Amino acid sequence: MARITVLGGTGYAGTHLVREAAARGHEVRSFSRHTPAEPVPGVSYETGDVTDPALLDSVAADTDVVVTTVPPRGELEPVLAGILGDLAARADAAGVRLGVVGGAGSLLVAPGGPKLLETDAFPAPFLAEAQIMDGVLEELRSRPESLDWFYVSPAAGFGAYAPGERTGRFRVGDDVLLTDDEGGSHLSGEDLAIAIVDEVEQPAHRRSRFTVAY
Ligand SMILES: NC(=O)c1ccc[n+]([C@@H]2O[C@H](COP(=O)([O-])OP(=O)(O)OC[C@H]3O[C@@H](n4cnc5c(N)ncnc54)[C@H](OP(=O)(O)O)[C@@H]3O)[C@@H](O)[C@H]2O)c1
């Protein structure tokens, strides 16, 4: 049993993650600005804003792993990268493993590149978010060896608009986008959660990024 703290455990990825972790018997806390209308049984919900340094202190305390799902959207767009850097420093100091749910945009479309976000196919409305989370990955790679981190890039077609279903059957890759026979890249919220809790229980990607898709 691990103590797992999810920053953003009430959002799309976060709700699936806290549900999967609690179902497997882990001690799960979630931090977000609001409490959910339908709380997941067994999950402890705390409220606060990531722009508050005191919240980051709480997130990194009394836990084995912190997984952040908070996206750089709206007011967080210009500041989230710095906040996640502050969180990484706290996790490092506390000996806590840090997981970051990022995006597919930073994945390479083929070995050697380019990145998906550098191609014409990448949707413009998501470009800023993808670039910021790409920067977060680069920043993690420059962190001291003492920080145990992982970064997960879901499939390009992952998202609340395409919830999919739980299959338990998916592929796990490294820095290259995984596509199916039709060239699509898909993953349900439940299957991303399975992959992340698998990583928490049996770390296979220390200080590295992995991607998950069908
Ligand atoms: N295909 C892809 O590559 C893809 C697609 C979608 C998402 N993503 C990435 O996956 C991750 C999760 O995205 P998502 O769609 O699951 O996000 P989401 O549904 O919008 O959830 C965001 C979570 O963060 C919390 N949050 C937002 N602002 C906060 C603040 N200031 N302080 C504290 N908590 C805050 C929200 O709760 P409150 O609002 O109550 O605070 C919520 O729990 C992000 O990194 C996103 O970039 C990737």
Describe it for me?
The chain has helices spanning 12-23, 53-59, 80-94, 127-141, 189-201; strands at residues 3-7, 27-32, 43-47, 65-68, 97-101, 149-154, 171-173, 208-213. With 214 residues, it is of the alpha/beta class. The chain has a single domain (3-213), classed as 3-Layer(aba) Sandwich (Rossmann fold), CATH 3.40.50. The protein has an 8-stranded mixed sheet with strand order 3-2-1-4-5-6-8-7, sandwiched between helices. Helix 3 (80-94) links the parallel strand 4 (65-68) and strand 5 (97-101). Helix 1 (12-23) packs across helix 5. The radius of gyration is 16 Å and the shape is globular. The model has no long low-confidence stretch (mean pLDDT 98). NADP nicotinamide-adenine-dinucleotide phosphate binds at residues 8, 10-14, 32-34, 49-51, 69-71, 76, 101-104, 129, 133, 154, 156, 158-160.
* Proportion of residues in extended strands: 15-25%
The total domain count is 1
- Indicate the CATH architecture: 3-Layer(aba) Sandwich
Structural class given helices, strands, pairing? alpha/beta
Top CATH class: Alpha Beta
Distance between the termini: 28 Å
Q: Low-confidence parts, pLDDT < 50 over ≥5 residues?
A: none
Query: What's the gyration radius in Å?
Result: 16 Å
Provide the helix percentage. 25-40%
* Overall residue-averaged pLDDT value: 98
The CATH superfamily bears the name NAD(P)-binding Rossmann-like Domain
The sequence of SSEs as H and E is: EHEEHEHEHEEHE
Q: Quick one: biggest sheet?
A: 8 strands, mixed
The number of distinct helices, counting runs of at least 4 residues, comes to 5
